[in-house]
C-alpha cells in the first residue's frame, strides 16, 4: 500500500466509525480514533496528520521516541499501546500523553515517579486479560484489576482513565460483541475509582462491535496504514 492512499483510507475509517456510532445512537464524538502507526514511517504519520488526525498510537519505545522527536512541531497526542518493560518507563513517562497497557503496580509506580513535573499527569488505562489468555498481557482477575486501580488512583502524576483490552480474535460479530460486552462490564466492578470511564477496545477487524458495546477509543492500524508500503 502506498502513502498516497492514506487520505482515502482514513476517510473510509471515519465513515465506518460514524456509521457504527449512528447504529447504536451514539455521538460520533464519543469515540476517539487512534491511528496506530507502529512500524510505519514518519512520512506516513505526517500524511495522516494532514487529514486532521491528532491521536497516534505506538507499541515500541525506541521507534516511537524517534518519531515523536521528528514530529515535535506537530500537535500530536501520543498513545503508548504495547507491553512496557520496567527499564523503558522513563522514556514513556517523559514523551507520551497516554499509556493503555499498565498491568503492574511496579510499572505504574515507576511511571508516576518518572513523569516530569512540567507535564500534566500521564493518562492511564489498565490492560485487562479476562478471561486469561496465555499469550496476552494484562491483569487476569477482577480482584487484581481492583487492586491495581486503587493503587494507581493514589498516584499523583498519573490520571486513571479506564481499561484497555484485546479480546480473542473471531470473525463472528456476535462473538465479538459478547467479548466486548464482558470487557465493558468490568467498569462496573464495585469499588473501582469513579474516574474510570474510558474503554480502549476495538481494532480494524472488530471496530463496529466494540463501538456497539461502548468503546470510547478504537485503535486502528492496518485499515489506515496497511500492512506494508510498496
From TrEMBL:
<dbReference type="InterPro" id="IPR029066">
    <property type="entry name" value="PLP-binding_barrel"/>
</dbReference>
<dbReference type="InterPro" id="IPR001608">
    <property type="entry name" value="Ala_racemase_N"/>
</dbReference>
<dbReference type="Pfam" id="PF01168">
    <property type="entry name" value="Ala_racemase_N"/>
</dbReference>
<feature type="domain" description="Alanine racemase N-terminal">
    <location>
        <begin position="11"/>
        <end position="228"/>
    </location>
</feature>
<protein>
    <recommendedName>
        <fullName>Pyridoxal phosphate homeostasis protein</fullName>
    </recommendedName>
</protein>
<keyword id="KW-0663">Pyridoxal phosphate</keyword>
<feature type="modified residue" description="N6-(pyridoxal phosphate)lysine">
    <location>
        <position position="38"/>
    </location>
</feature>
<comment type="function">
    <text>Pyridoxal 5'-phosphate (PLP)-binding protein, which is involved in PLP homeostasis.</text>
</comment>
<dbReference type="InterPro" id="IPR011078">
    <property type="entry name" value="PyrdxlP_homeostasis"/>
</dbReference>
<comment type="similarity">
    <text>Belongs to the pyridoxal phosphate-binding protein YggS/PROSC family.</text>
</comment>
Amino acid at each position: 500500500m502506498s502513502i498516497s492512499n492514506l487520505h482515502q483510507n482514513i476517510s473510509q475509517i471515519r465513515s465506518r466509525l460514524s456509521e457504527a456510532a449512528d447504529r447504536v445512537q451514539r455521538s460520533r464524538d464519543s469515540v476517539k480514533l487512534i491511528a496506530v502507526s507502529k512500524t510505519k514511517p514518519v512520512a506516513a504519520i505526517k500524511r495522516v496528520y494532514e487529514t486532521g488526525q491528532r491521536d497516534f498510537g505506538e507499541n515500541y519505545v525506541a521507534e516511537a521516541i524517534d518519531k515523536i522527536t521528528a514530529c515535535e512541531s506537530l500537535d500530536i497526542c501520543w498513545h503508548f499501546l504495547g507491553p512496557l518493560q520496567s527499564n523503558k518507563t522513563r522514556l514513556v513517562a517523559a514523551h507520551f500523553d497516554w499509556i493503555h497497557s499498565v498491568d503492574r503496580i511496579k510499572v505504574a509506580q515507576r511511571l508516576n515517579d518518572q513523569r516530569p513535573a512540567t507535564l500534566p499527569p500521564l493518562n492511564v488505562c489498565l490492560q485487562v486479560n479476562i478471561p486469561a489468555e496465555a499469550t496476552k498481557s494484562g491483569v487476569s482477575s477482577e480482584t487484581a484489576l481492583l487492586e491495581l486501580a486503587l493503587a494507581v488512583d493514589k498516584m499523583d502524576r498519573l490520571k486513571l482513565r479506564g481499561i484497555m483490552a484485546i479480546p480473542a480474535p473471531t470473525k463472528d460479530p456476535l462473538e465479538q460483541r459478547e467479548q466486548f460486552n464482558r470487557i465493558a462490564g468490568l467498569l462496573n466492578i464495585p469499588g473501582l475509582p469513579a474516574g474510570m470511564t474510558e474503554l480502549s477496545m476495538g481494532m480494524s477487524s472488530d471496530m463496529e462491535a466494540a463501538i456497539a458495546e461502548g468503546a470510547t477509543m478504537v485503535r486502528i492500524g492496518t485499515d489506515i496504514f496497511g500492512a506494508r508500503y510498496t
